[in-house]
Amino acid sequence: MSSNKARAVVGALVVVVAVVLLVVLKGNNNGDAANTDGGKLQTIVVRNAKPVGGIRQLTYNKGEQILFKVESDVADEVHMHGYDIMKDVKAGGSVTFDFPATIEGVFEAELEGRKEQILEMTVNP
Amino acid sequence: MSLLHALPLAHALVARKDLPIPAWLFAWAASIVLIVSFFALSAAWREPRFEEEHWRPIRARLSRDLLGMPAQLLCGAIGVFLLGVAVYAGIHGTEAPDRNFTITFLFVTTWLGFPLFSVLLGNVFKPFNPWRAIGRTVGGGFRVLAGQRSAHLPYPERLGRWPAAIGLLAFVWLEIVYGANGGVSVGLEPHAAAVAALLYTLYTLAMMVLFGVEEWCERGEIFSVYFGMLSRLGCFGVSEGRLGRRRPLSAATKWATVPGSAAVVIASISATSFDGAQDGAFKNGIEHTFHWFVDRGVGLAGALHITDTIFMALTFLGVAAVYLIGVRGMSTVQGAPPAKKLRSGFAHTLIPIAFAYLVAHYFSLFVYQEQAQFTYLLSDPLGTATTNLFGTASAGIDFKVISANAIWYVQVGALVVGHVLGLTLAHDRATAYWGDYRQAARSQYWMLAVMVAFTCFGLYLLSVANA
What we know:
The complex is a heterodimer. Chain A is α+β, with helices and mostly antiparallel strands.
């Protein structure tokens, strides 16, 4: 009998720990869906064939409009992977990307010729 | 960070990376795992149920057709042909990994496809194994010409499956460390993959000459051992030359009787863990170590290879340590068999965990890349835009086929199911080893801790992927 009691206690403890874990982690999750880059024009500046300030991170929710401009001092092709959009940019010129966030996931944009990543884009559901 | 990006970046094989699982899902999954584990302990059975296979043959005609010589010849020929195509495309095709047949065929279609089909349909790699097909054909030819069987050296029993375990680590090292130019999943170049396939062919055929075809496939041939291990989970198997059905999981209980088997399954878990962690959980550690080597004058590529190798080795040791601690704990329970018997006796309980890790980490890659495999990679295997064999050379991958939510549920579902199956096997083995079911249940607190550790680690890896 006592071993059954011990089991009941351990079982109750496990459930309590699980519920606490759930509540704590669930609480953390609210809020990160609100602040996205949706619909705002973002500019990625490329100097010496590298993105200024490192690889740019942009976050969207599915259905929002993705809008960013690449200003580059080198001529190359900007490739938005996953969405598979490619646009040429001239040295000293700029190119604008404007498309809806239809595919969820994490995607890269790079200077295709140089294999230089300039953007990491996250689209949340 | 900046230094890592000074390295030439290879194209990631797949353009869409998985989103990390959200915290609420992590919490749900972890909670379910804890609760299920607890009830598994208290409500469990007292007599072993999986030690016997309860094997029943399927219809004799169907079995004969599937296992007969014509089918064996056909499957073997297909295997040899596809290996040939992969080597040819690797050597003569483009060096862009995502456009060349070779990389996707070897590292996605074969490496991830056979585990799936092995679990569902049984040991399907065996008939398609190109090296076994070549070995048996040559052996058969020798028998006809010389009128006697070829003599082989006796395989050293103590080596067991260690060659396969080491080979498995070497294969994954080749896939994600050797070719990794800045942390992409499959950074290996097609030419290198083709050369590696040729070298492995030579090595395998040499070992088959030494020890015999079936002997080497059972112990040392990486892919036979690995896919064969996973096929033990399913309900189809061959016994005495006949195909039959058995109780699912039951064949796994007899798998780890050969030395080194635990190392194979630990190698599998650690390889998948390392691949999942290098871009997420280990990212900071890898960067830190990488800079440490660079500051001491090691070249960039060399520093990255050394760092990745160290982290991969540490992952293997870490996974092994968790398992060995569990074994050690069990050996303190009254009536425990010797530690050596425990060590090999519970190794098979990790097979479902290994498969769950595989599904969780590569499910989406498989879904995307198989679209490429059966469209443009089939029509234009060299990736040079010179052929369009089936008219599908200009097709692309539809990344919309699975939503982020669907991927998350598959990932978490795989880990939870793998956890339950692992616990099931462990509990069942304990009831076989401990006559007294109370002691058996007590020993299982240790295996429960091991399984919870692996499952929560797996969930953790998914929750920080690409962070």
